[in-house]
Design brief:
The chain is built from six helices and three strands, in the order E-H-E-H-H-E-H-H-H. The protein is mainly α. Helix 1 links the parallel strand 1 and strand 2.
């Protein structure tokens, strides 16, 4: 993904890792409508970086939105608007450290 122009992430902590490397990424998850309702009721967003930033930094395609037409539209939006990557980096400013999972080294 480091050599690509854009990426889609299905699950896991790859979103925060991609954001730390300033790679443009969208998120997809296959939820049913009742699962999406409860998730949106409590969190408002699904992916961890959007929750940490309390902002829609990475677009999310949830459930029925993850079909080839919507995926192609989101890819085309980034190619038509080359400044989109810079705007994503500006939105993430100061939040990447909070979203990363790391284990502190014991240097004693």
């Amino acid at each position: 993904m480091a050599a690509s122009d854009f990426g889609f992430v299905y699950d896991g902590q790859m979103v925060s890792a991609a954001n730390a490397l300033h790679l443009p990424v969208n998120c997809m998850i296959n939820m049913r409508m009742n699962q999406q309702f409860y998730n949106d009721y409590f969190n408002r967003w699904w992916n961890d970086m959007n929750i940490v930033c309390d902002n829609s930094v990475n677009k999310e395609l949830i459930g029925g939105e993850a079909w080839w037409g919507k995926i192609c539209d989101t890819l085309a939006e980034n190619y038509v608007n080359p400044r989109a990557r810079q705007l994503m980096i500006q939105k993430l400013d100061g939040f990447v450290v909070e979203g990363m999972s790391f284990k502190p080294l014991d240097r004693t």
